[in-house]
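Predicting holo structure, shikimate-3-phosphate bound.
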Amino acid sequence: MTNNTEHQVTFRAQPAGPIVGDIRVPGDKSMSHRSIMLGALAEGITEVNGFLEGEDSLATVQAFRDLGVTIEGPDNGFVRIHGVGMNGLQAPRGPIYLGNSGTGMRLFSGLLAAQAFDSELVGDASLTKRPMGRVADPLRAMGAVIDTAEGGRPPLKIRGSQPLTGIHYDMPVASAQVKSCLLLAGLYADGVTSVTEPAPTRDHTERMLEGFGYHVYRADATSSVSGGGKLVACNIDVPADISSAAFFLVAGSIAPGSDLTLRHVGMNPTRVGVINILRLMGANIDVSNERAIGGEPVADVRVRYAPLKGIDIPEREVPLAIDEFPVLFIAATFAEGRTTLRGAEELRVKESDRIQVMADGLAAVGVKTTVTPDGIIIDGGQAMTGGIVNSHGDHRIAMSFAVASLRAKGEIVINDCANVATSFPGFVELAQQVGMNIQSQGEV
Ligand code: S3P
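Done. Tokens:
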């Protein structure tokens, strides 16, 4: 498995535009992880199309191979998983490496807490700093035995053969990863496991469990499963990742003359915050050809240049756009007037502290912002100069500044970009194809 701290990738991005074309971005990361997890635990063969061949979801594939599951591919987005059934996983020979992936670690902790063998979950330098107490604590309440490093950080050492009992859990933070972790543990628990969320979060786990024939009871903000059932293999079509499409939605919105169509984009209502927010800012985004594929809504999305205006971002949109804020800050920078974000403290515990790292990056290209504990205030219309930005190994920060360069006054050099490969392999080529002027130096 690649360790991105070992090689350096730098992006050099020049002003450019318009953004024009008709493209499909890679597969949804959240759904790609889940397709492998549920396929591995199902009875029968699951075939996946549109799988994201990024390092995060590939780490999940490797993890299941380490747990004794036969997986063919990925080959051009196609994966065939030979499911082993709920109790068919085998003890891994060593620690399971999940790279940069918080989703991987949090979801694995739930399903490994219930296995008959011990396991250890490890990750890269960024993942090793991220909070895992949010999953370890409720799992312990179910009967799991889990050790973490200081402060609830990885590695996670999970003791096998612990009987789990269903609990009701009121999540203190709106986290799809915590919810999914507990539902996966709940598949193995005695009785009912139910999770209530303080605000709607992505529901791919619930939808995909239904697709595999496992009923999830859903009422208002609560999702519940009864333990002891089984998963039945099915075929999965993973749509394009709206979180990857987001970079091009902002690129097309800020570069004059742009007209870009993004095909087969996942439009799950728990994921469309970026479109809602950009539209509130005045973006010209058309959604067409809406259809349902395998229990998930999908559509084509066309973006054309439009002058943006600053807004107060409604707090209800925050969990629905949680991964898109770095690039939304770029949209705010080129909007007229003030944009204010509140209620987004979760951004501080993503692959980097996305509030501070974005504010530092914007400062490095001459844009002043005001950082608050749970958000940021950006006064649009300040001239963006060229400069050198440190992405702190965060894929979404790197791609956001590549988008920003479209309207900068000079070259932006973005350091530490290797992790773009975690979620968006081929980003640089696709960005070049639609009119961005970006070069990658290094290995990606
Ligand atoms: C994800 C959930 C989100 C998101 C992450 C992927 C998932 O995290 O930021 O990139 O696949 O469940 P939280 O649920 O912790 O907010």
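The chain has a mean pLDDT of 97.
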